[in-house]
Amino acid sequence: MSISIITVTYNCQELIEDTLRSVTSQVYPDIQYIIIDGNSEDNTIDIIEKYRANFPFIQLVSEADKGLYFAMNKGLSLAKGNIIGILNAGDFYTSPQALNKVANAFKKNPTDTLYSDLQYVKQGEGDKIIRHWESGHFDRAKIYMGWMPPHPTFFVKKEIYAQYGFFNTSLKISADYELMLRLLLKNKVSTQYLPGVLVKMPTGGTSNGSLTKHFRANMEDRQAWNINKLSPRIYTLTLKPLSKLQQFFRRKKI
Question: What is the pTM of this model?
Fold first, then answer.
């Protein structure tokens, strides 16, 4: 069972090495690591090339593109693994055994997708936990309560992408949310929860953006439901951002 990991980069020189070190330290033997770069103008490419010299499973494409989800789709089109995961620049797996755990979970309980837990940590201080995102076991009813799994922990079989499509690039912020609605709710693909923190994501310790960005994300979340001809509950899109508040009170260790 092969695994493809996709990372999208653009001027990420301060973040990318943690991600590269994380993926190249995995003990799982069958990895394809695809990096889609948007023509970075800093030292991002030099850092990636340093790792490519020692890890031939790294595949780099650097060229201008139309944005994050276009780049992710480019990576998906190049992915050869049976299972595909997406790891943002700066994110890192919590253990060299992370992909082993993912592969073993797919083998033990055959499923279309899999997700786990995530922690937000202070940039440069991986042990300083800002938020703890504990996903919990899957129940489609939870989606109507604003629930979604953390995207960097979400692994999907290649055949599922082939059947149901890639990211919807008409969305600039919520394409990952739309994808999960399309797979987990509309088409009811199977999934399983892998307990434990699989990924850490750096943050400056502040909120995830301005009020304008939050408003735009909420509008795109509504659009994601409409695209799939699904109807959220009257409270769904209010509860979605509110559900993040409890993550600040769950700062437990792995």
Answer: 0.92
